[in-house]
Amino acid sequence: MIDERTYQRRWKILLILCISLFMVVVDNLIINVALPTLSRELGASTSGLQWIVDSYALVFACLLLAFGGLGDRFGRKGAMQIGLVMFAACSAWASFADTTGQLIVARGAMGVGAAAVFPATLAILIDVFRDPIERAKAIGVWSAVSGMAVAFGPVAGGFLLEHYYWGSVFLVNLPITAIALILGAIYLPTSKDPNPHRIDFAGLILSIAAVGLLVYTVIEGPHRGWTSSQTIVSFIATVVLFALFVKRERSTDEPLLDVRVFRNARLSAATSSIGIAFFVLFGFTFLVTQYFQFVRGYDTLEAGLRTLPFALGAGVTAPLAARAALKFGTKRVVALGLFNMSVGLVIIGSQDANAAYFGPIIVSMLFLANGLALVTSPATDAVMGELPARRLELGLR
Predict the structure, then answer these.
(1) Which of 88, 102, 251, 262 has CB 3.0 to 4.6 Å from 177, enough for a Cys bridge?
(2) What does the pLDDT look like over 379-390, one tens digit per residue?
(3) CA–CA separation, 99 and 32 (whole Å)
């Protein structure tokens, strides 16, 4: 049971978590609309532009699992606060970068802070909202914020680039971070794993290496060629690293990630669905923002505004998705979400460069946004609801 004071503050706590989540997700996408400007101002090459975008995602993905485990051990509130401070400091650094290389490094450092913040937001949410119905609603809001951030990132970036210099897309993080830090210091509860294990350094290193190589290979695949020897060798090495990680986690009594929980088909299906949904999401948003600017010739603000249907679709659907899952079952709702995302991809994938915005482009956005919301909220709730039972069954923490 949580203490009465925390219980009374639970919706304020959710607001703080959502502010922090919004900032982390937005920054993964706000840079997309700035790419033409960065090409002019910094003289960035095509490869440089790609790494300005991908350095953040690469570092974030590499450290997400490791930092989630460290937050559980040493304290989620502390992990989140430290992550926010680092995120703000590196945002300021990025805003004053003079070269493409400096910006790439700064963006990567921002990914370190984001990796500390993101898992802490969900872990604190689950710790605060113990009632299953309230937890489902809270996760619905959390998912809606994540979905809306996807579209509001390009809009905010477009507005800032229209009125200020390119570094403003990073400086905007500072006041938001300050608000989250102050409110977090006042309202966030201190929580951590009550029975912490020793740090699994071998598992931590293997997880970073495996995820990092996988993301790097996917990033470089289009340039190297998906059937090139370099890409094939990288994928094989990734499989080997993941196999070593699984072997390590199965052989230790105190794993970084207990891989045995994935024997649970419900949990495995839910996590896979979330992974697929976000893989599709980030690929689509990267493509569509570039399409609006380079192909259709819209300026940064116009390109951002044209992604708003995505935010509206995700924002409206996410709170309803949690209720629908309670009424019709998680399996049906998540399956519908994946189906809707596939419909959206088929629609947008069958269009040519002159496709009507008020037609197939908006329709595809709405299908994708609706599908994302139908997947993430119920699937996340399913994962969180399944883990405690499995931990008890397996005698884990």
Answers:
(1) 88
(2) 877 776 655 544
(3) 18
Q: Alpha-carbon distance 397 to 200, whole Å? A: 15
Q: Quick one: fold of 4-199+256-394?
A: Growth Hormone; Chain: A; (1.20.1250)
Q: How do the domains of the chain map onto residue ranges?
A: 4-199+256-394, 200-255
Non-local CB neighbours of 25 within 8 Å, separated by 6+ positions: 145, 146, 149, 150, 153
The three-state DSSP-derived secondary structure of 327-377 is HHCHHHHHHHHHHHHHHHHHHHHCCCCCCCHHHHHHHHHHHHHHHHHHHHH
Residue with tokens 């893989």, as numbered in its chain: 279
Q: Distances in Å between the alpha carbon of 103 and those of 97, 151, 215?
A: 5, 23, 20
Between the alpha carbon of residue 212 and those of residues 108, 136, 166, 238, 333, the distances in Å are 12, 32, 29, 9, 32
Q: What is the reported pTM?
A: 0.78
142-151 pLDDT per residue, tens: 877 876 777 6
Which runs of consecutive H residues, i.e. helices, occur in 129-172? 132-163, 168-171
